[in-house]
Specification:
By secondary structure, the chain is of the alpha+beta class. 45% of the residues lie in helices and 12% in strands. One of its GO terms (biological process) is transcription elongation by mitochondrial RNA polymerase.
């Protein structure tokens, strides 16, 4: 009897527990509402729909990247098309990872605002010109308004500057002023350092904008160096801050709320890369390039810069280290003018990180320059040719043979090498070593 009562109680408790579990499971796992996840795009006309789908399905990855879309999203869209085929409806793009409602609206708007007849070359050029060579990025209106610039090269104890002006009278920029100023070698108190920097600022001429090289960022290191080295870095940072603030204060007040920038920081080593003065992370001398540019006054070309005679004399009268610092400030200014203001395609290609094929002499018509300026091949040994394009450094571009043998060859056939912005005819390192070994061989035989 007792066993029967216990079994009935247990059966009722198990039944109630099962009922509670089923009811709770039903209440917590209700089917999701699919209408909550529906995203509605704006209404487009049939012509707009056809135009958007045509651009997305027919344009390449590089062309899509030129619109208002990141390169990562453009690559995901291109991969999705390869896997699933072309887009059939405007909403299909929402299936691609990274494309939300706001992103798609901005992307479609840029597609509708762009001319369908825009060529592939124009899109690539526009993309290349948007490279941020300076900080802050310069807008198009500001770029067109700037007619003069001053570049300031700041050291621990020196300040050098140069001023370039874009004058329609000259085929290229004109240098109107440059100067070098020495500060005290020892560590200065901030009050004395500020006073000397203010004197330097009064010497810097007015211009539409001012350029400094982007300063080196401090690296976290377990061995920060000696206290003297830390003081040197601090003093250079103090000079940069004081001069930067004073130059920014020269900006004219803007009537609108839009900030008007007049100070730009060019990317570090950019000028050295443009003029081939960078070996690894070390800069080489700028003196050869400066002298070559000054020597081009008699025959202007695409690299022409107008140097007044008094500034050339001033340059030659300076000490060598002063000429080097003055040249760095000038080339920093010229790099800014060519890359940012003029947006010279040759200069943009030179500093591009993508690998370029070596440029032959025929591509820049330097063969004709050789024929016009050199009567005898023997004169080419010390002859230098300025070129507008940049082949790979220290790579042979052309071989010249002496007309001494019937087969047209000679004992020492030189090659044209591209070194430091010039075509130079000289033997390779291996050939020079062989020549030196041949010269030493008779001496060794005599000693033996």
């Amino acid at each position: 009897m007792l066993t029967t009562i216990v079994s009935r109680v247990l059966r009722r408790s198990l039944a109630s527990t099962t009922l509670v579990c089923r009811s709770s499971g039903t209440s917590t796992q209700s089917p999701p509402n699919e209408l909550d996840n529906v995203v509605h795009l704006p209404t487009y006309t049939e012509d707009q729909r056809h135009r958007i789908l045509q651009i997305i399905n027919e344009r390449s990855l590089d062309e899509l990247s030129s619109f208002d879309i990141t390169k990562t999203r453009a690559k995901k869209l291109d991969n999705w098309k390869l896997k699933n085929g072309p887009l059939k409806e405007l909403n299909d793009i929402l299936y691609v990872e990274g494309f939300g409602l706001k992103v798609v609206q901005k992307f479609y708007k840029s597609l509708l605002d762009t001319d369908l007849n825009t060529t592939k070359a124009h899109l690539k050029t526009t993309r290349a010109r948007s490279i941020p060579f300076c900080t802050p990025v310069m807008d198009e209106d500001q770029r067109k308004r700037i007619k003069s610039s001053v570049a300031v090269r700041i050291g621990v104890t020196t300040v050098s500057w140069s001023r370039l002006e874009l004058d329609p009278k000259f085929p290229g920029p004109q240098i109107t002023h440059w100067q070098h100023h020495e500060l005290n070698d020892k560590k200065l108190h901030l009050a004395e350092l500020s006073r000397r920097c203010l004197y330097v600022i009064h010497q810097i001429p007015e211009a539409d904008c001012y350029i400094l090289e982007n300063p080196q960022m401090a690296q976290i290191n377990s061995n920060p160096g000696s206290i003297d080295q830390q003081n040197v870095n601090i003093q250079k940072a103090q000079i940069t801050s004081i001069i930067s603030y004073a130059l920014i204060a020269r900006a004219e007040p803007s009537s609108s709320n839009k900030t008007k920038h007049n100070l730009y920081f060019l990317r570090r080593f950019l000028a050295s890369r443009l003029f081939h003065h960078l070996v690894g992370t070390e800069r080489v001398s700028t003196e050869d390039t400066m002298l070559a540019m000054m020597g081009h006054q008699q025959r202007p070309d695409e690299d022409y810069v107008h140097f007044p005679s008094e500034l050339c004399s001033m340059y030659h009268q300076m000490e060598r280290y002063q000429r080097e610092l003055l040249g760095q400030s000038f080339l920093l200014n010229l790099a800014f003018v060519r890359l940012v203001l003029l947006q010279d395609p040759t200069s943009l290609a030179t500093v591009s990180r993508s690998k370029k094929n070596p440029t032959n002499v025929e591509d820049v018509q330097d063969t004709q320059i050789i024929q016009n300026n050199v009567k005898n091949l023997q004169d080419l040994k010390d002859y230098e040719i300025r070129i507008p394009k940049a082949p790979q450094q220290n790579e042979p571009c052309l071989t010249i043979t002496w007309k001494t043998n019937p087969d047209g060859s000679g004992p020492d056939d030189p090659k044209i090498y591209y070194v430091d912005g010039y075509f130079r005819i000289m033997p390779s390192i291996r050939e020079r070593g062989q020549q030196q070994q041949q010269q030493r061989q008779p001496e060794q035989n005599q000693r033996q």
